[in-house]
Amino acid sequence: MVQIAPSLLAADFSALGREIARVPEAELLHIDVMDGVFVPNLSMGPQIVEALRDKTRQIFDVHLMLLHPARYIPVFRKAGADWLTFHVECEDDPEEVLQAIQASGAKAGMALKPGTSPQALFPYGERLHSVTIMTVEPGFGGQVLQREPLEKIRVLKERFPHLHLEVDGGVNRETASLCRQAGADILVAGTAVFRAENPGREMAFLRGESPA
Ligand code: DX5
Ligand code: ZN
Questions:
Q1: pLDDT of residue 205
Q2: Active-site residue, from 35, 61, 92, 168
Q3: Is this structure's pTM higher than 0.85?
């Protein structure tokens, strides 16, 4: 029921193709895009998405941490993004960004920083494929999961039963069960998966399939 989306942010950047090959059982690969403005960090751009596209058929779940996502939708779609998620806190009109994603043919998601209320998504929820609930301030991997944002899952699930609800930030063996119990069906995990000796086994732990 629960899917794990390994986040490439915690992978070895000098060998991303090889890193992807360590998680063949993952249906989704989470790709974090940062602009140094919306968040105080820089990460991957469309060239990396494009370079990885012919290495795998896995779904590219691209998380846009951008102040102005609208202008980059076509370029990420062309590079091979399957899902495009942007933040409701961005400075573009969310309506415009959502329409651009839908026009591109990608699946549309919206993300919430830990302090943003789920009501901010009510005007868009019906048309979304997924919502990403951030359980850390976006920008860096390896942070500690905040529990309070998990409460938003219940609110969103009740109002929009069709939505995939993804938790992003600080998911590990200790916190994965909290996320599952809260009703998340996708868990993003960077550090936990890519820093594990056996990523496949780690993913089974996070899904709750093997005793830790
Ligand atoms: C943070 C990113 C996350 C990050 C999670 O801004 O959106 O996807 O990679 O990393 P971990 O799993 O290490 O907390
Ligand atoms: Zn992310």
A1: 97
A2: 168
A3: yes
pLDDT score for 32: 98
Active-site residue, 12 included: no
What is the model's pLDDT at position 212? Answer: 57
Cα–Cα dist 20/168, whole Å: 19
Q: Is 168 one of the catalytic residues?
A: yes
Specify the DSSP class assigned to residue 79. H
Say if ligand 1 is within 6 A of residue 69 CB.
Answer: no
- 145 CA: nearest ligand 1 atom: 14
Q: Please identify which of the residues 12, 32, 82, 92 carries the catalytic annotation.
A: 32
**How would you class 176 by CB atoms within 10 Å of its CB: exposed for 0-12, middle for 13-18, buried for 19 or more?**
buried
Q: What is the pLDDT of residue 37?
A: 98
pLDDT-flagged residues of the chain (< 70): 211-212
Q: Where are the beta strands (DSSP E) in the chain?
A: 3-6, 28-34, 59-65, 83-87, 107-112, 130-134, 164-168, 186-189
C-alpha count within 13 angstroms, C-beta hemisphere, residue 186: 24
